[in-house]
Amino acid sequence: MRAWHKEAEKQWDERAEWWHQSSEDMWERGSRKTIIPFVTTYMPKEGYIADIGCGDGYGSYKLCQQGYRVIGLDLSSEMIELAKKQRYHEHLHFQQADIMNLPFPDETFSGAMIINCLEWTERPLAALEEVRRVLKTNAYVCVGILGPTAAPRVNSYRRLYDEAVICNTMMPWEFEQLAKENGFITVSQEGVYKRGVDGHFIQQLPTELKQAVSFMWLFMLQKR
Predict the structure, then answer these.
(1) Which of 9, 69, 103, 176 could form a disulfide with 91 if both were Cys (CB 3.0 to 4.6 A apart)?
(2) What is the pLDDT of residue 109?
(3) Does the record carry Signal as a key word (predicted)?
(4) Domains along the chain?
(5) Separation CA 92–CA 71 (nearest Å)
(6) How far is CA 131 from CA 103, 121, 135, 137, 223, in A?
(7) How far from each other are the two terminal CA atoms of the chain, in whole angstroms?
(8) CA-atom Rg of the chain in angstroms
(9) What is the distance between the alpha carbons of residues 179 and 208, in angstroms, rounded to a whole number?
(10) In 10 A of CB 72, how many CB atoms?
(11) Is 169 exposed, middle or buried (0-12, 13-18, 19+ CB in 10 A)?
């Protein structure tokens, strides 16, 4: 696991500036534009919210604009440095941390947001258990899992050649079952789709087919 996560840290350090160039557009107009409204619908504005896998901190900053107190956490030191330089709010703090070993006591956070982070862990169950540990009982957590049509999934392709990769292939329905079996309930869920997908057609489909054509699937979970 150390080798996996050290490689993930290295690659995200190298990609930090590239990510930073498009993060604002993703959160304001692109694939992440519906996340903050989804979070604010369910998550109370009390205590501190952990944004785990915060990248350059734009999502963390948007949460603060909605009245939350946020600690943004990311494996990449380069991402955290960008976040500290670019995103200022009196209720916003950033810290480098690995989701597998969060440097906080049990039941620290009143909520969490984890967008496209669990896909980059070697052991998603261990990561989920660590998230559960630092959440207060009945706390909400918004999790975004890359869907089958998401371009970043090409990062796991080379596993077919028996090469080591740092992106797992967990699907939304697999994650939901994992969460259900390990102390969470699903409160709500919704999909994010590529621009070419017909929204009217999607609404007619059952959940499993909606997930099958999604770019990303958002879950609102509650710790039990």
Answers:
(1) 69
(2) 98
(3) no
(4) 2-223 (3.40.50.150)
(5) 6
(6) 11, 13, 6, 12, 10
(7) 28
(8) 16
(9) 16
(10) 31
(11) middle
Residue 122 in tokens: 């070697």
Measured distance CA(197)–CA(191) in Å, rounded? 11
At residue 102's C-alpha, the angle toward residues 110 and 76, to 5°, is 110
CA distance 8 to 2: 10
Residue 66 vs residues 46, 80, 116, 175: alpha-carbon distances, Å? 12, 21, 21, 28
pLDDT of residue 112: 98
**Distance between CA atoms of residues 5 and 192, nearest Å:** 27
What percent of the chain stands above pLDDT 70? 99
Q: Taking Cα atoms as reference points, which of 79, 183, 173 lies closest to residue 130?
A: 183
Burial (CB count <10 Å: 0-12, 13-18, 19+), residue 11 = middle
pLDDT score of 1: 57
